[in-house]
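Notes from the 1:1 (GR / supervisor)

We went over the backlog. Supervisor wanted to see one worked example end to end before approving the batch request, so GR pasted a single chain during the call. The sequence is below; no edits were made to it. Supervisor asked that the structure be written out right there so they could see what the output format looks like.
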Amino acid sequence: MKLYYSPGSCSFASHIVLRETGAAFERVLVSTAEGAQKEPAFKAINPRGMLPALDYDGGIMTENAAIMTFLALRYPQARLLPEDEGQRAKCLEWVAWQSNTAQVAVAGLWRTERFVEREADFGPVRDAGLKRLERFGKEIEDWLAANAFAAGSVFSIADPMFLVLYRWSIKAGLTIDRTTRPAWSAYAARLAERPSVRDALQAEQISLFHP
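Structure output shown during the call:
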């Protein structure tokens, strides 16, 4: 398999899940900082020009939520979807929320041109995105204050994006630490020691705490 990724982007979540499966895969760098996702070479892989993309033995699939769910189903031995029905439901709820709600708010910050055409209108869109990101962080904090993982008591495909959102919140300028978000920060520190997360961080040469 091949994972097309850019360091620190939402593809980091799929990267973690791939490592959790134990399957062999190759990383293919597509630097969004350099606009490589818009180049013809990558658009031949994903015409939408968005990451991540996964080449699974000749087939191509895109969209983070879809890739992570696909991998969880393909490698059931990794137990990335909870066996308990209630926790599995919560896992899938978070995955949908991360993709449909949280990432849209972040796009308002760093991909503002998707929402408005005139640069003069960028400011209000970015301000609204930052406020939503802060509100979403409070929602995650409240959940993790009572639960060990996104699904409840077990690690699942919903957890990697919590780490991405933690990192993005700091990058956006929000104060995210053990004082303002104690449960989320403790969770991030704990998961940073998980082999799949540690190895993905090292491979992408990024930090959760100092974006």
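Supervisor's comment: The chain is about 50% helix and 10% strand.
Batch request approved.
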